[in-house]
């Protein structure tokens, strides 16, 4: 192919899928180029716009102004000074045309089609993206069940996939990639399984949407493939589940991904290579161990290094005595806990200009795949780390965190609630019932991380750092590493918004591997 294939990216979030596709470069040449990416949420769109700006420059020729912004020298937000910088300003308009803030389903379809048409023209294209998952996820369904008078057939979120269908029908992409949560396989709307309807509609998008193909484009049907299993005719729904830890991602993220190939192409396609499993899984330690150590910050009291040290060492003799005599506490865990408390180290609570910047290790963990090392790194970042700041925790949670991480260090398993000594029980009603068994969870060092979700924005109890001396939950950058975002990928917005963006994204490194499959199909 002489020029990059244009991409329409719907429900783009902060741009995980688009990042992977735009970064795929066989023989050093860009295979895909994002023509337009569409996202409704403000902070995610701001991140999308910043990354779009980054991509306007030739590979490895991003101006120093971008890195000055990452170092905090051009304000906290890109809108402050970066977008007015002379080396940046002339490319910003192109980025604005690419990254569009649109709420699909609310804006007139004709207006959306015009924006896409202006971006794609008459060229062939591909479509990527995943409709919002709140209506299909197990958590979302449980929340809906608790809403009085909730009627699933009246929830517009259940039908946002039809916006995706309309774009397929209108622009007839050669290939589409559609991602969603695993819960979509069991979700029902009006007592009918929604996945069966979605798959049927995707095979014949015109019948489902009644949207005519754009002028000059022929109407086609599509064949739906699994990315991980070679199956004839109709794959089992579970064949569409991609378990990311099997493919080099340091996270056990299980998602449904459908690969649609236009039938005129699929009819000529003998076969194609699926995602290839890796021999050695990437782990949490592999992904984040080179990042600077941070101490947790303190909430509800004045934060300082002295106050933090005092908070940890306030696990006093009386409390230690109770721990020592509690049947929930194994003897070797107790001994290690005492040792960890006695040798506690003080690290800064954030990295950044004048904020206790600590140089990262000169190299990534030696056991991290060389491919992932290259993916993360950017030599122009130097010793700088972005979006790496600990959040505040109450003192009682610090005590639980250091105990939980010590337990996981000794036993190589994150403890359940029945492993938590009573002196450290949170003030929750019925905590002893076992309903809160996973209220706290350590991300074990030598295993892939558990799924990073948007819930990480609300508290860090599910994402406790494996090192007791850091005694905190994951930072945005650590979550981003688990999600395989490159280190120069900056998340815009407040910290809560940044966590949500990371948790909702598709791992870009996985997307790059999917891009290779799509490229090979089109090339054939």
Task: Describe, in plain words, how this protein is organized in 3D.
The chain has about 525 residues and is of the alpha/beta class. The chain folds into two domains: about 5-280 and about 505-524, Vaccinia Virus protein VP39 (Rossmann fold, 3-Layer(aba) Sandwich); about 285-370 and about 390-475, no CATH class. It is about 35% helix and about 10% strand. It has 19 helices and 14 strands. It has helices spanning about 15-25, 40-55, 65-70, 85-100, 110-120, 140-145, 160-170, 195-205, 205-210, 265, 285-290, 305-315, 315-325, 330-340, 370-375, 395-410, 475-480, 495-505, 510-524; strands spanning about 5-10, 30-40, 100, 125-130, 175-180, 190, 190-195, 220-225, 240-245, 250, 255-260, 295-300, 390-395, 450. The strands form four sheets. Strands 1, 2, 3, 4, 5, 8, 9 and 11 form an eight-stranded mixed β-sheet that branches. A hairpin with a 2-residue loop joins β6 and β7 (about 190-195). α2 (about 40-55) packs across α4 (about 85-100). Residues about 355-360 have low confidence and may be disordered.
Gist?
The chain is of the alpha/beta class. 35% of the residues lie in helices and 11% in strands.
Give me the secondary-structure topology.
Blueprint: E1 5-10, H1 16-23, E2 32-39, H2 42-55, H3 64-70, H4 86-98, E3 99-101, H5 109-120, E4 125-129, H6 138-145, H7 161-171, E5 175-181, E6 188-189, E7 192-193, H8 194-203, H9 205-209, E8 222-225, E9 241-243, E10 251-252, E11 254-262, H10 263-266, H11 284-288, E12 297-298, H12 305-313, H13 317-324, H14 331-342, H15 370-376, E13 392-393, H16 395-411, E14 449-450, H17 476-482, H18 495-504, H19 508-523
Parallel strand pairs: 1-2, 1-4, 2-3, 4-5, 10-14, 12-13
Antiparallel strand pairs: 5-11, 6-7, 8-11, 9-11
């Amino acid at each position: 192919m002489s020029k990059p294939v244009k991409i329409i990216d719907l429900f783009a979030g902060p741009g995980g899928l688009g990042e992977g596709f735009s970064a795929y470069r066989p023989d050093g040449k860009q295979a895909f180029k994002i023509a337009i990416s569409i996202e409704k949420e403000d902070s995610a769109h701001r991140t999308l716009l910043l990354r779009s700006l980054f991509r306007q420059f030739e590979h490895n020729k991003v101006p120093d102004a971008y890195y000055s912004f990452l170092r905090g020298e051009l304000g906290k937000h890109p809108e402050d000074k970066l977008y007015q910088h002379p080396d940046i300003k002339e490319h910003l308009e192109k980025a604005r045309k690419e990254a569009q803030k649109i709420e699909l389903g609310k804006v007139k379809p004709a207006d959306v089609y015009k924006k896409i048409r202006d971006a794609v023209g008459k060229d062939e294209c591909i479509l990527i993206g995943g409709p919002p998952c709140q209506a299909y996820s197990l958590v979302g369904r449980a929340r809906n069940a608790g809403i009085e008078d909730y009627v699933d057939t009246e929830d517009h979120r259940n039908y946002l996939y039809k916006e995706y269908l309309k774009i397929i029908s209108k622009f007839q992409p050669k290939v589409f990639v559609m991602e969603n949560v695993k819960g979509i396989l069991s979700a029902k709307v009006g007592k009918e399984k929604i996945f069966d309807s979605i798959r049927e509609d995707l095979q014949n998008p015109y019948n489902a949407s009644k949207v005519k193909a754009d002028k000059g484009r022929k109407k086609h049907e599509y064949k739906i493939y699994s990315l991980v299993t070679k199956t004839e005719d109709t794959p089992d729904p579970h064949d569409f589940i991609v378990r990311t830890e099997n493919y080099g991602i340091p996270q056990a993220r299980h998602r449904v991904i459908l690969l649609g190939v236009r039938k005129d192409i699929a009819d000529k396609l003998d076969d194609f290579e699926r995602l290839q499993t890796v021999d050695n899984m990437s782990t949490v330690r592999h992904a984040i161990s080179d990042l600077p150590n941070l101490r947790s910050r303190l909430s509800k009291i004045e934060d300082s290094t002295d106050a933090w040290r005092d908070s940890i060492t306030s696990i006093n003799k009386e409390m230690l005595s109770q721990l020592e005599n509690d049947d929930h506490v194994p003897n070797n865990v107790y001994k290690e806990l005492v040792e960890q408390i006695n040798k506690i180290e003080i690290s800064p609570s954030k990295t950044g200009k004048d904020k206790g910047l600590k140089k990262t290790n000169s190299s990534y963990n030696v056991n991290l795949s060389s491919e992932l090392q290259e993916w993360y790194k950017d030599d122009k970042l130097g010793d700088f780390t972005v979006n790496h700041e600990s959040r505040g925790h109450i003192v009682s949670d610090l005590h639980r965190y250091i105990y939980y991480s010590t337990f996981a260090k000794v036993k190589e398993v994150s403890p359940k609630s029945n492993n938590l000594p009573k002196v450290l029980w949170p003030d929750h009603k019925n905590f002893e019932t076992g309903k809160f068994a996973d209220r706290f969870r350590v991300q074990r060092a030598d295993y892939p991380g558990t799924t990073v979700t948007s819930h990480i924005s609300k508290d860090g109890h599910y994402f406790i750092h494996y090192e007791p001396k850091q005694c905190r939950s994951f930072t945005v950058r650590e979550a981003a590493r688990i999600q395989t975002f490159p280190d120069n990928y900056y998340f815009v917005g407040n910290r809560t918004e940044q966590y949500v963006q990371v948790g909702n994204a598709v791992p870009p490194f996985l997307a790059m591997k999917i891009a290779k499959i799509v490229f090979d199909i089109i090339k054939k």
